Amino acid sequence: MASPKWFYEFSGKCLPWVGGLALIGVLTGIIWGLLFTPPDYLQGNSYRIIFLHVPSASLALTVYVSLAISAGIGFIWKIKLADLAAKCLAPIGASFCALALVTGAIWGKPTWGTWWVWDARLTSMLILLFLYLGLIALREAITSQDTAARACAVLSMVGLVNIPIIKFSVDWWNTLHQGATIKVTKGASMAPEMLIPLLISIFAFYLFCLFVFLIRLRTEIVSREQRTSWVRGMLGVRS
Amino acid sequence: MDGLLQLSVSDLTCERDGRCLFENLAFTLCSGDVLQVSGPNGVGKTTLLRIVAGLSLDFHGQVDWCGSPVDEDKPGFHSHLLYMGHQPGVKATMSPEENLRWAMGLHYSITVQEIYQALEKVGLRGYEDVPCYRLSAGQNRRVALARLHLKNKQKLWILDEPFTAIDLQGTAELEQLMVDHAKDGGLVMMTTHHEMNLDYSGFRKLALEPSV
Amino acid sequence: MSQSVSLLQGAKTIFTRDIRLAVRNRGDMVNPLIFFVLVASLFPLGVGPDPKLLTIMGGGVIWVSALLANLLAMDSLFRSDYEDGSLELLLLSPQPLWVMVMAKVVVHWLITGLPLTLLSPVLAVMFDVPGEAIPAVFLTLLMGTPLLSLIGAIGAGLTVGLRKGGILLSLLILPLYIPVLILGTGCIGAAISELPWVPFLMWQGALLMLGITFAPLAIAASLRVSISG
What we know:
Chain B is of the alpha/beta class and about 210 residues long. Chain B has helices spanning about 45-55, 75-80, 95-105, 110-120, 135-145, 170-185; strands at about 5-15, 20-30, 35-40, 60-65, 70, 80-85, 155-160, 185-190, 205. Chain C is built from 9 helices and no strands. Chain C has helices at about 5-25, 25-45, 50-75, 75-85, 85-90, 95-125, 135-160, 165-190, 200-229. With about 230 residues, chain C is mainly alpha-helical. Chain A: This is Heme exporter protein C.
């Protein structure tokens, strides 16, 4: 089942559906969120960036966990597809992480009056970005693909163990150095007319992430399997 | 007490970054065999040796030691293995004696007499406590080769280009040493570009062909 | 026939070997120490000699300098063994790799982390850290530097096969050092404000236990990967 050929064909069938749903979802979530939800009583209209910020931040973390798990599967059971998936996930996760940081900074300007505050959430996100960049740099530095995959697997698993430790220590560091931070997201107390578009937006971002991931993975499969008969056959038919 | 030792390799395929080095390679090596892996540069001789030794992970297939897969008992296999790679594994700031002491100390408790005898056999008498950076490349190689003179459990020798930097007399001695080891129930697997003239019935060659 | 070697003897062989090598290459031992003091001395030159400011910064500066000095020394942990082929011999010995790796990390800590710790009270005085807080500086470094060596060794193992491993190593490892840094500076900060600082040491101890349990396996795995490539 984990054969690259099977996956390539199967994902080819899913791709338009995932892409279409993601497009509809993102449009719905963003338009609803930006135009049709009431402004926040405390922050006015500036809070609307959560429809972009929260999904990105959530994805940044989810992608790292999935990356580490699939890298681990590839490392232990020597499944090529899992290695490829881990490779494709790194730049996607890094992009979402960067997006979360940028939107967080933009949100910070009207909220705190400055672009950057050493808020626990932002700081953790920044460290996560460094973890992603380290993974990408390590993969770039090693010439042999198989070795690079294994090295990144070890590093991402070490990172996975460390993420909760980093998260707790940063949260705790933040309470230690009490700054002028306002707790911005109070998830539970959010009004339903804001929560529903946010949930739609999060769901749609996940679909979009899956869409981008499938495209990357399919490209990677073709490039890695270019010598096999099925890829040659497929390309031969088309050219 | 050792009985017949056997190394068997089956269905070995090694592909490195899309390039196939060898496919479905199979051979068996028993006590008393000396196997020379030959072939042009880049054909995968070193890779094959590293796979069998357990250093390289990029392969499909099976390596069995005395009937059971090597993966199941790596320490057991490694206690029988003496590996010598391209780099001799000799620390430059340590003396030949210290080098042998740590290299063999991981396998069994070794005495000073044994070390001195081994060094004498490779012609390093009088150099026991000279730091290895003062020795020539050939002498450094001999420090590593002195490991072959120590009699112990390491019955399987995997030697990658052991003749590098060794003079003519040393070469002849080393060839004789391999034959003696094989006759004593050992197994030798090695690569070299040097023409081996072994007058020994257990001497075999494995020629690797460049794949297209 | 010949006697086989126990786990402890194998570790001892590596331990004495590495101690001996360290004593012969004294530069590798002394340079990180000089670096440690040098980096810390740059901060007063950069921000001015105001004693109040220095007291506030002191803990952080000492820890950041220790982090960097440790990182600098980390690159050499496996490199020479990799280059002269002795790492292959370690991997192919019948001893479990994690035991030998532990022996190497312990030696590495003894020649870098421990001297840094011993030197730290001097720096603390230079940064005008009050006398009551100096035990905190010393103890937190004593507890934290072994963890730095353990985490750093994972990165050193991953980058040992690369020609330019140094800068990449810092990229991989520094983010993982952050919890150690936070706890360490927190401890010193608490001691300066005359708050209880022992709980910080306990947290560091908990992390160290975690490190001792898992890091040797990760280091061994990273070395196998690097040797295989």
